[in-house]
Here is the input.
Amino acid sequence: MITVNKAQGENRSLCSRRSYPREVVLKVLHDSYDHPTAYTVYERARAIKPDISRGTVYRNLKLLEEKNEILMLETGGRFAHYDGHTEEHSHFVCRGCGRIEDIFEEPSVPELFAARGMEVLKTQCVYYGLCESCAKRKNEKR
Ligand SMILES: [Zn+2]
Ligand SMILES: [Zn+2]
Here is the structure.
């Protein structure tokens, strides 16, 4: 997996033994743009801090999500996905290959709520469909 190797390389300067699990989990998510599952986060965290346990990673994911430092996406699949990029964006989930893409262009609905004095605590907008390559493959089959 390319991303794991990349994460390893970038973290060589980080003192791996002494880094806190929470920082490791955050670092993994900040470096990931593919919205990994909890297990994938664990695998990438282990590349940085080999002695980190699965339970520790899962516990920290929950904690960070509660603090709104990361996002948890439930896309209707078997596993939840995590996103370390909390700036407002939507997601496009491909029904063909399962990849999750970030969508940054969006009319701001929360602003409409705010104008009416309503308080939006969390927004999660997910688009489902077929990504470019899956749509192409589907059309070629016809
Ligand atoms: Zn696809
Ligand atoms: Zn995202």
